[in-house]
Amino acid sequence: MSAALRRLLSSIWFQLAVAIGGGVWWAFCFDERPGFLVPLAAAAPLCLLAGAPLGPWRRFWLGGLHGAVAWLIAVPWLSTMLTVYGGLPVVPSAGLVTLLALYLGAYHGLFCWLAGLVVVRQSALALFAAPAIWVSLELVRGAGPSGFPWNLLAYAWVDVPGALDVTRWIGSPGLSGVVVFFGLGLLRLVDGTARRQAATVVAGVAVLLVVARWSNLDRPAPAAPVLDVRVVQPNIGMMTDDEHLAGLDDSSIHANYRRLFELSREACEQGALVVWPESAGWPYELERDAAFARDIETLVGRGCSLLFNSARRSGSGEEERAFNSAYLLTPGGGPADRQTYDKMHLVPFGEYVPFARYLPGVRQLARNAGSFSAGDEVTLLDLEGARLGISICFEIVFPGQVAARVRRGASVLVTLANDSWYGATWAPHQHLRPARFRAAENRRPLIRAAITGISALIDHRGGVLATAGIDEAAVLRMPVTPVFGTTLFSRAPLLAPLLCLAMAAFAILRR
């Protein structure tokens, strides 16, 4: 590090400026449309804090401040959701979001603390160890039933040419490491130290992106029926259970119901696949509401197949379990021919309350009686030679889980989402990004149906072919060609993260 930069970093005001300004910069890499120039240096301020000649605890809290600022700016919509749909007053909901931001910001602090052990030496090892440490921390953040792999650093590069193409080799976890690697290179290039090394890093990443882009060509595929897909976005806003039970929303429910079926009848043509988003038919359930079931059977009787979401019940009495499920109904099929997939990764406090017996005052956000139970296996839905791998809402943010569907034989990916909780905020745009990455990582077309937007048809490179905007009622029509075969990432989604974990451990222990 140059003497001039060292002098600047000796000032607490400059340290705070880097931490807060870098956090703001980081957050705006996840806004509606950041382009590709702003995100290129997303990791540089954080790397500067990691390499600062400061004590480990100073680096930790400055990094934590950077992260807390970034998350507070990027996910404030969580506070509104907790207030409107969770029944919490404004102050407690804001407090919970602040606590979440501090927790997530702690990963930035840990990065500065751990990476600082190696970055300060400015060696070639540091150039690889620091990205490995960040990838390892993202792996930990997304692990377990309560994992939260939202806004992975890789997603900041969604519009950088070639970035999506790289993920078929190393996935979004590996791309997160590339973003840190590039940020370190830019930082050293600007600082003036080890410029040859820094120029090599920047040029190497550029070459990687170019090669990934131009080598990601279409290969001859076995003949397969093309799906005539119709995504229905009914633009049904969120209503709460309290409103429904009080009878305050009956007219809205009936109006929404009519609009849903009017759009679906318009979309339903012979041989087409009509896709509904999550919660489109709420509060009705296929297996409990006879009129709803008749209307669906009438729709499918027109000659189209229907993929939709509904609660599914199993057992009775105290043994009854509810599942958040996807159903596929085809023309001519009876109840015995219904194919179902049960959501496997449930949202804590959204679809169930962890330790519910100890938290009697906390209610879940999902609109169902009692808590959902998690499905226990990956189930693909078969349609005319295509195999549909379903992810319901939050499941799409888990790279390894989607790759598991591809390994089981999924040739088309589908995600059914309900983003109406968040309104016209950054959240629907942030939720669309992982869908694009899952398509690119696995080289699969992806169908995204969202109840108030953003619905999209995404090609196997992660490119968006068609969208329906937020708060827009629409039907997307497009042929979708199933894709077979697997990518390196599909076959081994943990390869890059585990290699990074091993490298990070070696570098830290060696230091």
Describe this structure in words.
This protein is an alpha/beta fold and 511 residues long. It folds into two domains: 3-217 and 496-510, no CATH class; 227-483, Carbon-nitrogen hydrolase (Nitrilase/N-carbamoyl-D-aminoacid amidohydrolase). Helices cover 47% and strands 14% of the residues. It contains 17 helices and 13 strands. It has helices at 3-9, 12-28, 37-40, 44-50, 56-74, 77-84, 90-119, 124-141, 163-191, 195-215, 241-245, 250-267, 290-300, 399-407, 427-442, 488-491, 495-510, and strands at 227-233, 272-275, 305-314, 321-329, 339-342, 372-373, 381-383, 386-392, 412-417, 446-450, 455-458, 464-468, 474-480. A hairpin with a 2-residue loop joins β7 and β8. α7 packs antiparallel against α8 and α14 packs parallel to α15. The chain is globular.
CATH class designation of the largest domain:
Alpha Beta
CATH structural fold name of the largest domain: Nitrilase/N-carbamoyl-D-aminoacid amidohydrolase
Task: Give the ordered list of helices and strands.
Answer: HHHHHHHHHHEHHEHEEEEEEHEHEEEEHH
What average pLDDT do the residues reach? 88
List unreliable stretches of 5+ residues: 244-248
CATH architecture of the largest domain: 4-Layer Sandwich
- What is the 3D shape? globular
* Total of domains: 2
